[in-house]
Amino acid sequence: MTAETAAIDCQDLTFAWKDGDEPVLEDINLQLVKGDRCLLLGANGAGKSTLLRILAGKRLTKTRNCKILGQDVFMNPPGGVVYLGTEWSSNPVVRSDIVVSHFLDSVGGYRHRERRDRLLEILDVDLDWHMHQISDGERRRVQLCMGLMTEWDVLLLDEVTVDLDVLVRADLIDFLVSESETRGATILYATHIFDGLSEFPTKVCHIQLGTTPKPMLTWGPDHPDLFTTALGWLREDRDLRRVKEAARGRVRGPKAEVGSFLSR
């Protein structure tokens, strides 16, 4: 990987919420070149969202070892990076009585009319919708249209397709593949939904309990089923997590309390 081809370069990243806390990310390594489409796989709580937010420049780390397009993601954030996460839908502004056309124009949609219109068709969005009257899935489509209508170089996606129906999701995936192949755009996509994704990634990265224990996989048609691979990793993650929690005296699930009906 050279400076000319590097898109995301994250080396030995460790992050804790505050000094003295156990790290939520430890020795994370992730390197992608321009045009890569990488799936970020791991269990709930593995650190995927935290990593994406760090890469988006939304979390300050002690060490300056995360770069996008050769620039420090927090101290000197590069242009051309789009982060789309699930927290957007809880913003009261996007649930207010505003017409979609006005909403998109307020973030520059009129300057990107050709791409905006293409995305309106792909995502099946009605410009006359009122944001407070539409469903969560329709609101998510508006978010995607808003985030993707400029020509981005690096796209960080955190579970934002979970609300989409299968047709819109399939058309969106086709659009993202086209963007990477024709413009050399790079995509890092965290998801738990693997239907229709077997031909999407060029790379697959496994985050296990806040670490990257295995070398990133270069993905291709000769690889096994993506769902089967993910399921095997998640079972491995759960077994390891149970061992670590048991060593600390922690057990998930129901607990019988002294004097309770269950303990009699």
UniProtKB/TrEMBL annotation:
- The ABC transporter domain, residue ranges: 8-234
Q: Which InterPro entries did the record assign?
A: AAA+_ATPase, ABC_transporter-like_ATP-bd, P-loop_NTPase
For this UniProt entry, which residues form the secretion signal?
A: none
Q: List the Gene Ontology MF annotations in alphabetical order.
A: ATP binding; ATP hydrolysis activity
What keyword terms does UniProt attach to this protein? ATP-binding, Nucleotide-binding
Entry-linked PANTHER family:
SKFA PEPTIDE EXPORT ATP-BINDING PROTEIN SKFE
Its recorded name reads ABC transporter domain-containing protein
Protein species of origin:
Vanrija humicola
